[in-house]
Amino acid sequence: MNRNETTETLTEEGKKRKTKIVEALDKVTNRLMHLQRPDNESELKALEGDAARRGYYARDFGMDAWDWPQGIGLYGLEKVGSYFGDERFADYAKPWMAARIAEGLPSRNINTTAPLLSLMELPEADALSLEWAEWLASGLPRTEENGYQHVTTGTTPDEVTLNENEIWIDTLFMAILFTAKMGVKYDRDDWRQASLHQLLLHIKYLYDRRTGLFFHGWHFGGRHNFSEAFWCRGNGWFTLGLPEYIDLMRPYLDEGVLVYLTQTFRSQSEALLRLQHDSGLWHTLLDDPASYTETSGSAAIAGGILFGVRRGLLPGSFAEPAMRAVDAVLDRIGEDGLVQGVSAGTPIGRLRDDYARIVTAPMAYGQALTVALLGEALYRG
């Protein structure tokens, strides 16, 4: 086969792959907009032992609630709009927000901030976004060193679980990105600087210098990283969120800070690629081959790496293994657009094995992080 024939063959393969990605993206997006509670919810609720410890949180399922899974769902829809230049995000988000406000919004906490990461782009959400940003600045409980304490929704939507003196890697995506976006949108240097302080503080206490990976959380009172688990989706929050943060805040970052963040991102990406499973995915406990491979975290990791390559934060050679993850994720999308193999809501585990015992179920964030990955894959051509 001569060179021209090879090029032609690769081009045709590339076209087929792109068509497959576009078709999958459409299916996953449509299912996300109509995602309801899982068919086997009664089985999940009746899990032997502590259902919450296994990942059963009733509020997490579907799109008809205001919390972090739905917030990441909105993020995915916003991404689709940016990829295709259409209005599907606004067309969906406006009535979605109106319905949630009519029902009554839940308590303000780190996780319930997540929907505003995308809703803040709508004029209808301006007042609410400003109120929430002011609350993050002056009302959210703080840890030592003035960290964003990872306060979450309690037993009911009106209650909170304080998680006193704890910071979690999830906070980058749930609240720090929102703080930065609001600082840029409203030219509030105090909000921009607050977001940078929170990001650097989370890196300081959650980054493991030995491995290049991130722990799930840090407890200031106990001075420990809990079970020291390297959780797949937790690392994915950083891999996808950090290049988003840099892209947004680059004009406001000193060169030394930019280099530091970029080097941390590259170190983590290198560590992750060393742990990638032969399938192209990552284990839910990254360094435990006995734990299951998990789709949402894998999608966030691969999507963040592709985004980093596209923005010049990572070498081009990192794209090939990330594209292997694209193929693996495509294999987990059903004909109905449901993304399979997604771990449910995951609290900080008392034991490393707690992460491996989290149930899997179709989740809004699984759909959304898959959307983010497939969109980045399209940029590769």
TrEMBL record:
Keyword Metal-binding: no
Residues forming coiled coils: none
Alphabetical UniProt keywords: Hydrolase
Gene Ontology MF term list: hydrolase activity
Superkingdom assignment: Bacteria
Protein name: Glycoside hydrolase family 105 protein
Species annotation: Saccharibacillus alkalitolerans
